[in-house]
Amino acid sequence: MKFVTIRDLRSKSRQIQNDLIKLKEMILTSNGKPIAIMMAISEDSLEESLSAIRRSRVTSSVTELQIRSVKKRKHLINLREINDEIKKARSERPNG
């Protein structure tokens, strides 16, 4: 996996574009920390690529929630307790 700094992206954008086409993926960094994943796509695959990324995010979020639930033993609560948790989470939202 190739890492690219923001500075390099500004100064060597053409080279990075060519490298991205060959490598398919690169990590963009700022101050040595990863901030974005760059992926080569085509106009024809744009919607499919975005859809796949979104599905992956949802899957990761659900898995993380399931793990936290088991760790906190929340997977053992009943329906009333589930509804109370939902109500509490909604009330804590900024527009709740």
3D structure, described in words:
With 96 residues, this protein is α+β, with helices and mostly antiparallel strands. The chain folds into 2 domains: 1-40, YefM-like fold (3-Layer(aba) Sandwich); 43-96. Helix content is 59%, strand content 18%.
Task: Based on the model shown, name its key terms.
single chain, alpha+beta, YefM-like fold, 2 domains, 3-stranded mixed sheet, 3 strands, elongated
- Low-pLDDT stretches are none
Strand content: 15-25%
What is the total number of structural domains? 2
- Rg for CA atoms: 20 Å
C-alpha geometry: elongated
Helix content: 55-70%
Amino- and carboxy-terminal Cα gap: 42 Å
> What is the mean pLDDT?
91
Write the layout of secondary structure elements.
Layout: E1 2-5, H1 6-11, H2 13-23, E2 25-30, E3 33-39, H3 46-71, H4 79-92
Parallel strand pairs: 1-2
Antiparallel strand pairs: 2-3
Brief synopsis:
The chain has 96 residues and is α+β, with helices and mostly antiparallel strands.
